[in-house]
Amino acid sequence: MKSQVIRLALCLALLLGLCPAQGAAAKDLTGNSNIQLVRELYNNVRETLPSEVNAAENTQTIQNRLKCYEENHDYGQRIQICNNKYVKGIVHHARKAVHSRPNLGEFVLNVDLCPILYNICMGQTEDDKERCILFERQCIDYTLDMFWRGSAQYTQQTYRLDQ
């Protein structure tokens, strides 16, 4: 009996020695945050002129995503179902209208951030849905400029201004 208590005490002491103390310093989470990336994206999108290429199709895709969000309240379903359909729709329409060679992997990763910018816009404009749909379209256009259309953003905007 006494040897069992000693073994238990040794195991407990060993376990406590391996575990960090509860009073340890708080973990710095600033390195794990993408807030600066989102801020830069927001500013770049704000400076992007909305394109008329696929404007109606992209607007419809955004509206379909919003409707899907209304039908799927679970975050996991929104990501799996709604955002998946959203990205596939954007890619489908871009393939039809934009004839340059895309950097598809980067495009998909970045266009997936556009719904986040829609939500930020909704917070800043007091739920102006139409304005934020336009802003999300600008995000899609910015992402197309960067990863699909094959030219710098300035060239694309100059082209749009000339039309």
Quote the average pLDDT. 84
**Secondary-structure content class:** mainly alpha
N-to-C SSE string, H for helix and E for strand: HHHHHHHH
| Total discrete domains | 1
Largest sheet: none
Quickly count the helices: 8
Q: Tally of extended strands?
A: 0
- Terminal residue distance: 90 Å
Radius of gyration, Cα only, in angstroms? 24 Å
Strand content: under 5%
Unreliably modeled segments: none
Helix share, percent: over 70%
Shape: elongated
Describe the overall structure.
The protein is mainly alpha-helical. The protein has one domain. It is built from 8 helices and no strands. The longest helix has 23 residues, at 75-97. The protein starts with a helix and ends with a helix.
Strand and helix layout:
Blueprint: H1 2-18, H2 35-46, H3 55-71, H4 75-97, H5 104-111, H6 114-124, H7 129-147, H8 153-162
Protein traits:
mainly alpha, 72% helix
At a glance:
The protein is mostly helical and 163 residues long.
